[in-house]
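Quick question, first post here. What does this chain look like in 3D?
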Amino acid sequence: MSRVLLGIGYVFLYAPIALLVLYSFNASRLVAVWGGFSTKWYGELLRNEAILGATLVSLEVAALAATIAAVLGTLAGTALARWRFPGRTVFSVMATAPLVLPEVITGLSLLLLFVSTEQWLGWPQGRGVLTITIAHATLGLAFVAVVVQARLAAFDRSLEEAALDLGAPPWKVYATITLPLIAPGIATGWLLAFTLSLDDLVLASFTSGPGSSTLPMVIFSAVRLGVSPQINALATILIGLVALVVGLAFWLGRRR
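> Answer (accepted):
Ran it through. Tokens below.
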């Protein structure tokens, strides 16, 4: 019985993905009608400048936002895990607020912030890649801070204390001992922030401007007019890349 339930669960989870991959090789333009095996939609996808441009924008934004979130989130997680200071509770709530706030609220508040600062300070000059990056970094920072804080909560501080007793300054202890040991947590947070940025639609819709559409925005606009086989081809490529990265990470973990 347990195997039957497990099989039903796998079918429920992966049957839609399998159908999507299958119909990416459909020769017919109609998604629901099978017209034979063909790879022409992959060729059409490579000639679609809108999708290719949006993909580059999404990758650029995701890489920058994840890096900013990793740096600021590591500092925030360290402060929350190690220090007791006035206003710590408020800082903790503010740092993790994007985890619980609806993205619509976060997106609207960031939009009002950018519009207000543009009127008062003249910055930023219009919404675009920069404002999307700031919005995504704000969201990713919360995830990185939580991961790093949890990593430091289980950290063996005797290693730091030994280095301090031997005369190493605190900044060197943090750079040479603490950071390398919590590096897997930082990398996990970076990957989470990168994935969230690459997948986000709501924040990007609020904070984007002309010429800065991300890939989820382009896909959403295209799907509203009907699912195109090119979208199936694009999704299949993304699934393949994710499977490759996960497989590589699993293989490296097994080797270690």
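The CA atoms of residues 167 and 242 lie 45 Å apart.
The chain has eleven helices and no strands.
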